[in-house]
Design a protein that fits this description.
Two copies of one chain form a homodimer. Chain A is α/β, with parallel strands linked by helices. Chain A has 28 helices and 29 strands. The radius of gyration of chain A is 30 Å and the shape is globular. Chain A starts with a strand and ends in a 32-residue tail after the last helix. β9 of chain A pairs antiparallel with β24 of chain B, so a sheet runs across the interface.
Amino acid sequence: MARKFKSMDGNEAAAYVSYAYTEVAGIYPITPSSPMADHVDQWAAQGRKNIFGTPVKVVEMESEAGAAGTVHGSLGAGALTTTYTASQGLLLMIPNMYKIAGEQLPGVFHVSARCVASHALNIFGDHSDVMACRQTGFAMLAEGNVQEVMDLSPVAHLAAIEGKTPFLNFFDGFRTSHEIQKVAMWDYKDLAEMCDMDAVQAFRDHALNPEHPHTRGSHENGDIFFQNREACNKVYDELPAVVEGYMKKINEKLGTDYGLFNYYGAPDADRVVVCMGSFCDVLEEVIDYLNAHGEKVGLVKVRLFRPFSIKHFVDVLPETVKKIAVMDRTKEPGSIGEPLYQDVVSALYEAGKTGIKVVGGRYGLGSKDTPPASAFAVFEELKKDEPKREFTIGIVDDVTNLSLPEAEDAPNTAAPGTIECKFWGLGGDGTVGANKNSIKIIGDHTDKYVQAYFQYDSKKTGGVTVSHLRFGDSPIRSPYYVTKADFVACHNPSYIVKGFKMVRDVKPGGTFLVNCQWSDEEFAEHMPAVAKRYIANNNVNVYLIDAIDLAAKVGMGKRTNTVLQSAFFALAKVLPAEDALQYMKDAATKSYMKKGQAIVDANHKAIDAGATAFRKFEVPADWATAEDAAPIELSEETKSAIAQQVKNLLEPIDRMDGDSLPVSAFVDCADGQFELGASAYEKRGVAVVVPHWDETKCIQCNQCAYVCPHATIRPFAMTEDEAAAAPEATRTLDAMGPKAKGMKFTMAVSPLDCMGCTNCVKVCPKAPSRWFPPSRRWTSSPFGTTWSRTSPRRRSSSRPTSRAASLSSPTWSSPAPAPAAPRPPMHVW
Amino acid sequence: MARKFKSMDGNEAAAYVSYAYTEVAGIYPITPSSPMADHVDQWAAQGRKNIFGTPVKVVEMESEAGAAGTVHGSLGAGALTTTYTASQGLLLMIPNMYKIAGEQLPGVFHVSARCVASHALNIFGDHSDVMACRQTGFAMLAEGNVQEVMDLSPVAHLAAIEGKTPFLNFFDGFRTSHEIQKVAMWDYKDLAEMCDMDAVQAFRDHALNPEHPHTRGSHENGDIFFQNREACNKVYDELPAVVEGYMKKINEKLGTDYGLFNYYGAPDADRVVVCMGSFCDVLEEVIDYLNAHGEKVGLVKVRLFRPFSIKHFVDVLPETVKKIAVMDRTKEPGSIGEPLYQDVVSALYEAGKTGIKVVGGRYGLGSKDTPPASAFAVFEELKKDEPKREFTIGIVDDVTNLSLPEAEDAPNTAAPGTIECKFWGLGGDGTVGANKNSIKIIGDHTDKYVQAYFQYDSKKTGGVTVSHLRFGDSPIRSPYYVTKADFVACHNPSYIVKGFKMVRDVKPGGTFLVNCQWSDEEFAEHMPAVAKRYIANNNVNVYLIDAIDLAAKVGMGKRTNTVLQSAFFALAKVLPAEDALQYMKDAATKSYMKKGQAIVDANHKAIDAGATAFRKFEVPADWATAEDAAPIELSEETKSAIAQQVKNLLEPIDRMDGDSLPVSAFVDCADGQFELGASAYEKRGVAVVVPHWDETKCIQCNQCAYVCPHATIRPFAMTEDEAAAAPEATRTLDAMGPKAKGMKFTMAVSPLDCMGCTNCVKVCPKAPSRWFPPSRRWTSSPFGTTWSRTSPRRRSSSRPTSRAASLSSPTWSSPAPAPAAPRPPMHVW
């Protein structure tokens, strides 16, 4: 069966399959599941038909609790019903899940598995949400990558219908739900063909119906409840066979080999990992490497987690296995071990295979990246006579010492010939969108396999985005960050200044492209010594491009992404240069035609310009021995709790190096309690253009301050004394208005807090403020700069007493004593 | 330390202890936990002080989700906060539980563990609710009886504070929460003494406070979440020792031997059961019996379920153990085994004790009674070389054959000298209240230990209540139904007619008291043959009493319970007759003085009368060979699905014999879906007096029908033809009112549906309707009678077309053709 290929993420794959089998969708959005419901809603609005010939009826409720109730009620009325959720949303569905399972209703919950908030919220991926549902009576089916989501999601729907059991179909939040892969798609005809329409009819006939009424949801006393509860056993006993039956149907259609459990690796392995979800693909890469190097290791991939079939599990396990490591992507404090570990132990115990040593590891909580190095560490640990019974990977636990040591120079296990690229952008700057576009161009116009993963932070617009792109001739299994890149681009010069460790991810001989307005000298001045040494010692090719001025020049305003995308294609050479240009232009035409020819033209100009606008930076020889600047020491006055916390925790996090923090860094905040006021230290300086106050034109209307969403622009009214005590650079005007008579006015701008939104420029009634590239103005890390000048605690007790003018209540404060301390840099720059 | 004794249930014991350590209670009521919150609320309103010298602040929210939020917020603000919940209520708290645990807040949830609704709702006890929380990070502490709830609940609060971990403190819903036991109480001084006030202060100092603000509830990205999540490990590693420390403190004060796990039984046992909750006491009884008979068996009682300490578990396990049965009071379909089973297997695997055979059993779901016979069956099964890996007890599973065979004649394992009594009452007739009063009298005025358990059904008022009372000189461990009673009372004659299997629970030589207005001949006529044979062959002493007429005579109206209580004391001879009379009178005086001397006098008269009003029934010799009546056969016309369901399921349930139904009876309704219309067959006939329409006085005001809550009284307007076709006994009047001119009127009464509330009598504006004892009118089972006459399905298609007069819209229906079929008995009697 030849299938069409399309680049899509796991959410779209699940939505695509689920739509086929869904009559009603009861939904409520929660990250990272929202796109599934969003797709279904859009397709329904477009009138797309499911395999029954009707569009899906989408019902959005007030919460996930309501969505679960909708699913329950709709199923009871005989409509095949689906929902999409995660995390706390899934938790709100638990009470209804017991009912849906107890009433043997064929609902399907597609879950992009996500962390449940504990000491802190975390919107990213792990299995703590789905594990909180394992006792509800739902069957649970897991997929490890986008293709598996496409291939296996039908099993959840089909087995639910035939097996009279609801399914929780899950895959890793973000890692799979948001990873774009080029996947082979189902034809709805095949999906329809596999559906047991007799079972569908039986379900409908059995549903609540006023024409032949029944009662459901009764109460049972202690005399009969237990017996009735046991009457469902057969359904669960038979379900594994039902699931297996549909997997076989799929295997016949696709030539795949899906089973309840799949074994991968040496048939005579002595060490085996048991795992579920996206880490399986990492393990496969590492297993290939190790077995190619004479070791004998393997992996059991768990697909049908509930019901857990001991027979099928034991059947796939090689007879030669001596040690097993079970990997759980969840943490259940106080338990003997995490759920999958306990299942494997129980299965082996029951099967009489207690000679096998079993250990359990936690990984990937809250989307912690789990690279091959972690997988190598697991197999290495299993070599020991007494491997750690409980361990963690991907972190350094220097408190309870559960973590396994991981090699920094672990082998590259990605498929040979895979090109890996990494882009550091700013949330909202278009980097992610451009990369999605690039991956689509490559995927659609070549035979190459593609993968794109986007690492967001929860700041959304204005946060850092890191795009991880791979493409190559072999299928791409690598569900982990790109750290051995052929090409790394830094789209925001402030990341250089802040010391983001971007260059270390460039392979020797690879390419590093920096978007900045700097001259070569300025660039050299801003580069940290550690980066310089890496570049020089690894023959990294450095290119500079000023997409900022270029974008403005061709009429793209601050939208630098098109220029940079074109530069990427020119430098990475994935496609013939001309073809790439044409594909990009075609895509731009398609996207922007509805906005008018001028926009299309600007995009085309930007594409042409970007292809040649970069220049090679000649790396000076002395970079090989560049010396680090002296570290910033805490002065006595700033050894406060907040300053310590900023130095030890927030500063590394702020420079995108939080992964390097060990567990000990969090012992004092194990309960998630932190010092207040840390945001005052977070001077990000991410705006590539910032407002500059032109006092010669200002009419003191304060509109610019009013629309500034980050309070970067603040008007001050000062007495003469206050004005005299202001920093030297302060420019002032005589304040206007009768109540401000005799006072001085200034509009203070804090460029390091500016996000570059340009709202201020748009509202200025006189003339647009002048824009100024800020990066030429600051020369050291914003954290160091700000924090060495004054401490916020001290500031708060001696802040200027004159209040900023308020637009909503245009009265002026009365004169007050001059401030005793220098103004903080966030108020006057 | 000498402690005061008091008779109370588990809920009161938990409330009593929790009050001491609680500053704020965030509550929302749910059966069976509501009395805990209710006690706390009442005590707070009375100004009772906790050990910190303040009354508890009680906050009732809109749902358990809100209550959990209140607990979370209140703990965050530094108040020691508690809640009380169960079942779906607890499920609604799960999201907050992760947060409370993650933030290391010392909250305590007291949970009277209850079934979670699945195919049907069940408000009774099992562990499915608490097991749904085992992954949240809460510590979990279990108690098995009321004394343990009293003794160990302080551990939850104290260890939470010192150990920085919230506790879920649980005990069996109903079986422990509602069982009254005479228990030794804590003195609040001792509770205060055990409290680590430094830890309390540290908790308060660390709380959110505007004077020294901190931040909590932040978001963490994938870079640091995992490390921070691992920073809590030490807390959980250290918690078992903290719990053990407080158990030791308690042991020192009380002379007890509480541990994280407690072993009971032979030190060299070969077979051991692992269990949690009230079944432990049953097991202890059976273990005593078996070990006294040369076997070697034992029990591990799990107290600290989370964190599960493998070391402590293995330490209490005898070296000699060869086989273990783990008992779980929950069902997790699709899992390898239930949670405690998996924990025990994992613990043994990790401890290297895999030579022990481990099997797992489910029991007691939805308050299924688990008597000694079930415990014997478990130990018997463990004798086998290959005991069932998965089994059930307390039911007959003839579908998946998981149940163990249980002997009908299992030995009586209750403490020697225990007097056991059983009372069959009608919800709202005062039986339960009178028994609570009796147990209090015995408990407070003798050295005897007492136990009272009340088996309700979910019909509440009007349902069947069965009171199980025990008292004796030794502590009473028997948490199961009384089935070997010294004394059984039937407080409602309809139970005889319906064939409730009451007599079989009377020990040979025991006493059976029946409240009825019957003559000896009538009584003999109503008794089922099987009961007659049992009575004759087991020398059961039968007494009859007409408390119905007697209560009316002494001014107690339909309140028969006082008369019957007095008869109980006279017959059971627990106390000297004169003392018992005096204690009852004192209690009545105390209870009713506020209602006036007349009420008190009536009660005293009833007490005096009851003590002598019974008469001994001389059992005829031919009862030994009484022959059963022929079973009712389904006629062809009633072989409908509903009739089958009524016969096979509802009829046995209706005669309180649902326990005897095997799993196969539920295969067709495994999903909880039943035929509609079954209530038409449930002719209960529980009213001991019913209305009788006096047409000579009726003014056709219809008030009696209007106030009848069960639609037992229904006015009919009929055409002449309809009236002619009405059953022979129908009496009619000429209908009044201009619109009803020419029609006939009748007021039809269905005595079998009447609950005897007497509302109709109270509103009759002419003269009170005459009351008539219905039991003399029907001679066979109401089910048989009703069901053999007509089928509701047929009836519904041929029902009289004249509609009943509606009071709210006093129009009359137009004449219609006469009914084609006889009127169903529920409309015209």
